[in-house]
């Protein structure tokens, strides 16, 4: 699965003032990502505000993204949730043309046991024609998928090929990397973790800040993959503060404002998310100016 190594980006879903999907801006953003060196794109991850999109909107976005990309870079579809049977049916009916894998978040809100998480992914694995990337993000789901559960899934199902890890638990990352099958991959789920996780053996990042700064993120991962960590540190440090500002009032609120400032649509988000404060906007404007120098 070299398709999901290096720099991936979890695309935002741009909206118009009336709340409809802004496909024109989405198209511009996709072209920007490809031009600036992103290795692959993720359509409808958390950053795409998937929780507030209807089933029909998701289908239209997946098709639009596939048609726009037209095979130029690999595509991953975000299909996850806390209703296992609904996710299974969505995956069974998903048009896989143009997509290389599915990113599926660990069940949120329900707070399942580790056995429940295992059985959830087992059902998804058995339903999917595409490889599965697990996604562990305890800050959003309310439960952690342990290294033991990740390794159990990696060993039991050939089409579970990677995990996007956003737990921030480096002891957990170490255990996964030490005991995983040779072809199972660890992917950073947090931008600031890219460099240290790749130094440990992760294969890349699925980025948020990459929506706005794809060339920085793609260069960072390329340098890390070459073992040039001293050079990579420069890009890591450049991105630290702007990444913090992306998340300080919720994702993707911050990165959408950055994109507006860079000429990619408007910052509109769907409730219960709201636009970021004027104080944070001012900080972002100052940092954008610094990064442009």
From TrEMBL:
It is found in: Cytoplasm. It holds the Pfam family DHDPS. It catalyses: L-aspartate 4-semialdehyde + pyruvate = (2S,4S)-4-hydroxy-2,3,4,5-tetrahydrodipicolinate + H2O + H(+). Pathway: Amino-acid biosynthesis; L-lysine biosynthesis via DAP pathway; (S)-tetrahydrodipicolinate from L-aspartate: step 3/4. The active site is at residues 135, 164. The keyword Ribosomal protein does not apply. The record marks 46, 109 as: Part of a proton relay during catalysis. Belongs to the DapA family. This is 4-hydroxy-tetrahydrodipicolinate synthase.
């Amino acid at each position: 699965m070299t398709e999901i190594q290096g720099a991936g980006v979890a695309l935002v879903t741009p909206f118009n003032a009336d709340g409809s999907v802004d496909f024109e801006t989405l198209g511009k953003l996709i072209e920007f990502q490809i031009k600036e060196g992103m290795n692959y794109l993720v359509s409808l991850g958390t950053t795409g505000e998937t929780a507030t999109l209807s089933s029909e909107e998701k289908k239209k976005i997946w098709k639009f993204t596939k048609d726009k990309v037209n095979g130029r870079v690999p595509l991953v579809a975000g299909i996850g949730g806390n209703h296992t049977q609904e996710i299974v049916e969505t995956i069974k009916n998903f048009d896989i043309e143009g997509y290389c894998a599915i990113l599926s978040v660990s069940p949120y809100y329900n707070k399942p046991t580790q056995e429940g998480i295992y059985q959830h992914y087992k059902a998804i694995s058995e339903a999917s024609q595409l490889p599965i990337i697990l996604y562990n993000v305890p800050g959003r789901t309310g439960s952690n998928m342990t290294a033991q559960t990740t390794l159990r899934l990696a060993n039991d199902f050939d089409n579970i090929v990677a995990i996007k890890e956003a737990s921030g638990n480096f002891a957990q990352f170490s255990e996964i990397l030490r005991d995983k099958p040779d072809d199972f991959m660890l992917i950073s789920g947090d931008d600031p973790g890219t460099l240290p996780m790749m130094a440990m053996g992760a294969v890349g990042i699925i980025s948020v800040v990459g929506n706005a700064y794809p060339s920085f993120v793609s260069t960072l991962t390329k340098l890390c993959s070459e073992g040039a960590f001293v050079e990579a540190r420069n890009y890591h440090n450049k991105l630290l503060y702007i990444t913090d500002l992306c998340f300080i009032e919720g994702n993707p609120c911050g990165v959408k404002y950055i994109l507006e400032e860079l000429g990619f649509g408007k910052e509109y988000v769907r409730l219960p998310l709201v636009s970021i404060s004027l104080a944070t906007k001012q900080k972002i404007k100052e940092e954008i100016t610094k990064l442009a120098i």
